[in-house]
Amino acid sequence: MTEELRGFQQRITNQLDICLTLPQAPAQLVAAMRYAVFNGGKRIRPGLVYLAGQAMGSAVESSDKSACAIELIHCYSLIHDDLPSMDDDDLRRGQPTVHIQFDEATAILAGDGLQALAFELVATDQHLDADTRLDIIRTLSHAAGPAGMVGGQSIDLAAESRQISAAELENMHRRKTGDLIAACLQVAARIKGADELTRNALVTYGYSLGLAFQIRDDILDHTGDTATLGKPSGSDLSNHKSTFVSLYGLAGAREQLELLRLDAIDALTPLGRAAGPLITLANYISSRTY
Length: 290
Fold this sequence. Notes:
By secondary structure, this protein is mainly alpha-helical. It has 14 helices and two strands. Helix 2 crosses helix 6.
């Protein structure tokens, strides 16, 4: 964990706690939603919104609701990915997955609730004008939808038990992981009203970072252990999934990861010295142990 990201973690936690105080919702549903959000997590996605905003000089309050919305979308996706009909995982962040801790129906509804709440947060954010809110909703719905994250998961499920090409693998993970991570940077740029050069730099950084994140996940699934990872190691192999390790080998995957780390850092050149924390995060992503 980088020092800069750690500096925003308490703010993220506090903001998420406020967002998930839902006295009018069924207690069991809220308990499952909160369980999914507060059972650990590195908070990289909301952290990116804050870090990019900080690099451009945005007021931190203007990022709160959007950062929370992105984290809620991410957590919803994890609940659904873990379901028996998807990846069928029993462990997430070292704890029982939501459908194990509660039940499958509650898990599905908790994911649905987190996704809907995410868009409500942005739509009602009084720190942003109406046009900005609409643009952020458009960005997040596209990144999380059938052309983005959900589409990537569909491709992933269809690719089980068969070897896919490098181009297919990159497309899958660009959608499944990269689109939402890039959206964090797009949202931060939209909140600030950044110029086109800065927006493009941040989005390029985001896509390189997202793919690097996935390659590091594949490497850790191959080399890590369940206790450290907080989820079953070797699950990609047991599910017969194509990964960067199965396609390139371990050494080749590490080489691809290093190229993406350098691409991400190079993309930030227009931001100058203000990009320091984002560079540090790219280095962390490429070397993390869980």
